[in-house]
């Protein structure tokens, strides 16, 4: 993918290790490219207005406004107050999940058995990264799952199946206001959202 055009300047270029958290403030008008380096890697994501962390991404408001449960090119990521945080500028995958939520040690235990209780999960990543911004558990809400394939059956049943992504595929977002982006590079190994083997992703911010 062509990340930066001649008119663009790279202001941040980080590789997030497998299973790790990441965060940064993306300034209004800047672009964030989330790049799936090895393919089939879910990237859990939370968004907050940088100036007011109580104005945060709302899956409900976003889905209602766009009348679509999936995210793709043109989707505007909104808060409960209607604030537009970021817009999906380009999408090389097709759609992304905004309803399945983040894995946690508790949900792993319920879904996959007590032997998974010790496994690191996205909620733990979010809590560790949120603490850097003076936020805690009450500040976590339903998240976006970039690259995660969650089909919905006619009876409303959700599935978690192999992703549609591939090595080097990306989704590109433009910040509409200064936006704090929190990411958990999903450590899940009990379902196929990461191909059962979490891998690194790359986060590139340009202006």
TrEMBL record:
A Pfam family the protein falls into: DUF1989
Domain of life: Bacteria
Coiled-coil annotated residue ranges, if any: none
Residue intervals of the DUF1989 domain: 15-180
Name used for this protein in its record: Urea amidolyase associated protein UAAP2
């Amino acid at each position: 993918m062509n990340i930066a055009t001649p008119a663009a300047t790279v202001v941040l270029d980080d590789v997030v290790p497998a299973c790790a958290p990441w965060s940064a403030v993306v300034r209004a008008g800047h672009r964030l490219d989330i790049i799936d380096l090895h393919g089939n890697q879910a990237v859990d994501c939370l968004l907050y207005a940088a100036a007011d962390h109580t104005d945060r991404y709302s899956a409900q408001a976003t889905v209602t406004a766009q009348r679509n449960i999936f995210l793709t090119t043109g989707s505007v990521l909104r808060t409960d107050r209607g604030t537009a945080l970021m817009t999906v500028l380009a999408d090389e995958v097709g759609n992304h999940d905004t309803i399945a939520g983040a894995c946690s040690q508790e949900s792993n235990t319920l879904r996959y058995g007590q032997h998974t209780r010790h496994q690191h999960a996205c909620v733990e990543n979010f809590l560790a990264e949120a603490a850097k911004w003076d936020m805690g558990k009450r500040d976590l809400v339903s998240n976006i799952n970039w690259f995660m394939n969650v089909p919905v059956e006619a009876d409303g049943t959700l599935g978690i199946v192999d992703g549609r992504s591939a090595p080097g595929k990306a989704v590109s977002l433009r910040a509409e206001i200064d936006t704090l982006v929190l990411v958990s590079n999903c450590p899940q190994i009990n379902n196929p959202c990461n191909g059962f083997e979490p891998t690194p992703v790359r986060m590139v911010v340009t202006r």
